[in-house]
Write a structure and sequence with these properties.
single chain; mainly alpha; 12 helices; 1% strand
Length: 294
């Protein structure tokens, strides 16, 4: 019943996140069984799965800051489901994101700092950001995993299980049908991983790096459509101020703590418009004052 769901979930708003993840798995299963052959239908199906997988990555990000279920077993199963949704173990968010990016934002200790990209053509910066930082993030993940194995913490066992379930599932699907696997599983997962990491560039490039200027340390995308589709991942400044705040509470917290206090250029109403201006035309890499990023 709905009452039982509310007891299992820490926040009632996560009924929608559960529905979104279930939709991804159902849509993938239907696409796999449907034997669609028309190129247009295949493209539409792949695009839908790409979005749903990316939405899963946004939900994963939120879940790794604030757990979804009150029961430990349900939370463990939920994390496995999330790993299968965007094609990467959710445990990897801990070292590369929670304990690094949030603690050392944009510094040399942040493997996802945007200063690693220095192409004059700004489109290349956004296109190649995720492939550029991926190796350093993976190295950090492996070092952190080795540390947890040495200290004997529960994180190690949980991580190994997530890796095993994900790898075995993907190998099985690849063996069953390589073509369907590439179209309906691998491609959506690659896009989701690229998109969730690339959002870091959109939100931090050209912003303050000093911890004392945290209100101007992130760019916010406050449009309702963007935040509905990404589960409020557009409200980034308040997320850095209060990382464990549930995603459903971010809009009100942004209005109260951030909106009137940060530089107005850091509150972007439309993500699509910002992407076009920043990376296509005029496509200049500028900070939030409009000055060139050196």
């Amino acid at each position: 019943s709905l009452c039982d769901q509310e007891k299992m979930l820490k926040f009632q708003a996560d009924q929608r996140t559960v529905c979104w993840i279930a939709t991804y798995h159902i849509a993938t299963a239907v696409a796999w069984q449907a034997n669609v052959s028309h190129p247009v239908s295949v493209c539409i199906t792949v695009i839908l799965l790409m979005y749903l997988s990316f939405a899963g990555a946004c939900i994963t990000h939120n879940s790794m800051h604030c757990r979804t279920f009150t029961h430990d077993t349900l939370e463990t199963l939920w994390r496995h489901s999330l790993s299968l949704t965007y094609g990467h173990p959710v445990c990897t968010f801990v070292p590369g994101h929670n304990k690094s990016h949030h603690v050392h934002t944009q510094s040399t200790k942040d493997p996802m700092r945007t200063s690693k990209l220095r192409y004059k053509w700004n489109w290349l910066n956004v296109l190649l950001f995720q492939p550029t930082v991926a190796a350093d993030v993976f190295k950090m993940d492996m070092r952190y995993l080795a540390l947890k194995r040495h200290t004997g913490e529960a994180y190690y066992g949980q991580s190994v299980r997530e890796w095993m379930v994900l790898v075995l599932t993907q190998v099985a699907l690849l063996c069953l049908n390589p073509t369907k696997f590439m179209a309906y599983v691998w491609l959506p997962h690659i896009f989701a991983q690229w998109a969730i990491v690339t959002m870091n560039l959109l939100q931090h490039d050209g912003c303050e790096t000093d911890e004392a200027c945290i209100l101007n340390g992130s760019r916010n995308f406050i449009g309702p459509i963007t935040n509905y589709l990404t589960f409020n991942n557009g409200y980034h400044t308040i997320h850095h101020i209060h990382p464990t705040l549930h995603w459903s509470q971010l809009p009100k917290a942004h209005t109260y703590f951030v909106e009137a206090k940060c530089h107005p250029n850091l509150n972007q109403k439309c993500m699509a418009r910002y992407i076009y201006t920043a990376f296509i035309y005029p496509g200049k890499r500028v900070d939030y004052y409009g000055e060139p990023v050196i």
